[in-house]
Amino acid sequence: MHIVVCIKQVPDSAQIRVHPVTNTIMRQGVPAIINPFDLFALEEALRLKDRMGGRVTVLTMGPPQAEDALRKAVSFGVDDTILLTDRAFAGADTLATSYALAQTIRKIGEEHPVDLVFTGKQTIDGDTAQVGPGIAKRLGLQLLTYVSGIDAVDLQNREITVRRRAEGGVQVIRTRLPALITMLEGTNQIRYASMDDMFRAARFEVRKWNKDMAGIEDVGKIGLKGSPTVVSKVFAPKPKAVKAQIIGSGLDSQGMAAALVDTLFAQHPRLGKELQHASH
Amino acid sequence: MSENNAAPAKAKGKKRLELDPRLAAYQGIWVFVEMERGRVHPVSWELLGEGRKLADILGVELAAVVLGGSEEAVEAASAEAFTYGADLAHVVADPVLTEYRNEPYTKAMTDLVNRHQPEILLLGATTLGRDLAGSVATTLQTGLTADCTELAIDPDNRGLLATRPTFGGSLLCTIQTLNYRPQMATVRPRVMAMPEADPVRVGRIVREAFDLSEESIIAKVLEFIPDEAQEQAQLAYADIIVAGGRGLGKAENFQLIWDLAAVLGAEVGGSRPVTHAGWISADRQVGQSGKTVRPKLYIAAGISGAIQHRVGMEASDVIIAINNDPNAPIFEFATYGLVGDALRILPALTEAFRSRLAVNRLAS
Ligand SMILES: Cc1cc2nc3c(=O)[nH]c(=O)nc-3n(C[C@H](O)[C@H](O)[C@H](O)COP(=O)(O)OP(=O)(O)OC[C@H]3O[C@@H](n4cnc5c(N)ncnc54)[C@H](O)[C@@H]3O)c2cc1C
Ligand SMILES: Nc1ncnc2c1ncn2[C@@H]1O[C@H](COP(=O)(O)O)[C@@H](O)[C@H]1O
């Protein structure tokens, strides 16, 4: 079985700050990490390999530094890595990104046919959850989003059975391979890198492909040109004009609580009625 | 790369481009009415409310798209869609659409779009809506903006201005789909206000042909395991929410939140660190990567008010913040603030509400 996992290198947004005056992002010194949601996809792929054998290829599209994310993936035990990197990809939106990744997966499949593609649920920088479905549609793969567990993979009959999060419940769904799975968060925990794999990662030869190597001929479909959406404006949220009214300062907890309840019932009679109703 | 949703593109000049005549033919606003197991997700009505405003600005019709397994189901949902502002409903009733599956829904939706050519298509950013929107946008080769918090029309070119948070919510960005139609966007539940239903409002039902046999659909649903009612937090649509944050110190202290919630008949929520630590379940997380809520009352104890939490709850009518740091960001936008130790104030508040509610009950 051959599994391709798509991961993205993202800035650790917990550490991103916005410049208070210019409203620009201060990226300097912000560490880059593997998109946390993608680790659930990676671990699930590795577990399938543990169970059934086969190979795991990890793919990322990004700047040359994204090689670090792939090296990290090697330390968890993946077999092969592809860094898709080309200036022509700059400014891609999700449609252009899914095109570039889909073409690359097609190319990877020429070396070893692909049975399963994994992506994360979403990225923490793009945050759209669109790239996974996009790749699936372009490659004609069966799409399984928000998967929380894989019940069975039957390579003989080319079938897969998974559990996926639906509105109001869990769907157990069976479909055909090849398929694309977007993995739900919290479904597993990424393994620790073994010593051997860490050494292997340090020396690992990451394959770097440009657009031509990935078999992308139509530059109208990638980068800024291939992106239907454009960002026309970036701005800071409006600060709220009024700050909180501090209640009962100087009083003890009981005093504060009483003052608050008084204020609430006096200032918001309709809310008071709601509370009365809800508490019944 | 792949950060168009983040980095401003150098495409400003393109804004005033004349729309290709083929694309200019796309007219009208569509809202996908999301129905699962006979129940319409309320986000559909919220979107119709918003869609109505956009349609009035553009002077075009607002259509609901209702896909379902039976005539009764789609008719009932259409009738309700009219009360929330739809002028017409494009309906497909077919047994293959009884349960959501990507394949038949994507086919039904893309067929309809190609047939009728709407300029704007809005869907809820639910698990179902996101699954469908991403597939439809790719199939149609058009732009899709996810998780919008504001929708408007560009007076210069009648285009959709879709605004969404970016960089973990620290900034907002406005995204346009230039030379592609339809312009697609998803919006999370509770981000838009619920419109007032007009019970006498009616519209036209347009029955649409659809030809897809069960045999030709590859994916089969073997089983549906509904969430247990008590497990499933109804956070998004709760009227009163009591939420706790890392400031409560440890898991056991979260009991104080449950106690206050019990007295108020409230739902319980929390910030990301507490759901990550397992003090409460993940579906109770409020915020950018959790749920958006807009209750009548939101009580936040030991929550700093980081932007990612704030975007999920600032539309609440009244916000009460309890925090021992008078400079905590949450006091910048809460309605009322109590500065002090939540571990002391919460039990006092529980008692104060309990006795006030009891007194009122006696008086009434
Ligand atoms: C991509 C991304 C997505 C995110 N999504 C979400 C999200 O959906 N939801 C979310 O909540 N967060 C989210 N976060 C995290 C967010 O940035 C904050 O880290 C988080 O909201 C902080 O939680 P907190 O306020 O509980 O904890 P803290 O920031 O640690 O704040 C604790 C507060 O408690 C106060 N306190 C301490 N002791 C007491 C006491 N005894 N009594 C009263 N007050 C006390 C402190 O003064 C402090 O203000 C996200 C972050 C990122 C990067
Ligand atoms: N540049 C990229 N390279 C590889 N995989 C990506 C890239 N962008 C997105 N993905 C994958 O697509 C998923 C959804 O991304 P998004 O649509 O940005 O939320 C991610 O979790 C990744 O698995």
Outline the secondary-structure elements.
The complex is a heterodimer of chains A (280) and B (364).
Chain A: E1 2-6, E2 9-11, E3 17-18, E4 25-26, E5 32-34, H1 36-52, E6 55-61, H2 67-75, E7 80-84, H3 94-111, E8 116-120, H4 131-139, E9 142-154, E10 159-166, E11 169-176, E12 179-183, H5 195-203, E13 207-209, E14 229-235, E15 245-246, H6 253-267, H7 269-278
Parallel strand pairs in A: 1-6, 1-8, 6-7, 7-13, 8-12, 9-12
Antiparallel strand pairs in A: 2-5, 3-4, 9-10, 10-11
Helix pairs in contact in A: 2-5, 3-4, 6-7
Chain B: H1 21-24, E1 29-33, E2 35-36, E3 39-40, H2 43-58, E4 62-68, H3 71-83, E5 88-93, H4 102-116, E6 120-124, H5 127-140, E7 144-148, E8 150-153, E9 160-166, E10 171-177, E11 183-187, E12 204-207, E13 220-226, E14 240-244, H6 255-264, E15 267-270, H7 272-276, E16 297-301, H8 307-313, E17 318-323, E18 336-339, H9 342-363
Parallel strand pairs in B: 1-4, 1-6, 4-5, 5-12, 6-11, 7-11, 14-15, 14-16, 16-17, 17-18
Antiparallel strand pairs in B: 2-3, 8-9, 9-10
Helix pairs in contact in B: 4-5, 6-9
The complex binds flavin-adenine dinucleotide and adenosine monophosphate.
Flavin-adenine dinucleotide (FAD) sits between chains B (168, 245-247, 271-273, 285-290, 302-304, 306, 308-309, 312, 322-325, 328, 341-343) and A (13-14, 124).
Q: Describe the strand arrangement of the main beta sheet of chain A, using strand numbers.
A: 11-10-9-12-8-1-6-7-13
- Strands of the widest sheet of chain B, in order across it, are 7-11-6-1-4-5-12
Q: Classify the secondary structure makeup of chain B into a structural class.
A: alpha/beta
* Net shape of chain B: globular
The amount of helix of chain B comes to 25-40%
Oligomer: heterodimer
Look up the CATH topology of the largest domain in chain B. Rossmann fold
**CATH top level assignment of the largest domain in chain A:** Alpha Beta
Return the CATH architecture of the largest domain in chain A.
Answer: 3-Layer(aba) Sandwich
Average pLDDT figure of chain A: 93
Ends apart, CA distance between termini of chain B: 63 Å
* CA-based gyration radius of chain A: 24 Å
Largest sheet of chain B: 7 strands, parallel
Give the strand content of chain A. Answer: 25-35%
N- to C-terminal distance of chain A:
58 Å
CATH superfamily heading of the largest domain in chain A: HUPs
Structural class of chain A: alpha/beta
Total individual domains of chain A: 2
Bound molecules: flavin-adenine dinucleotide, adenosine monophosphate
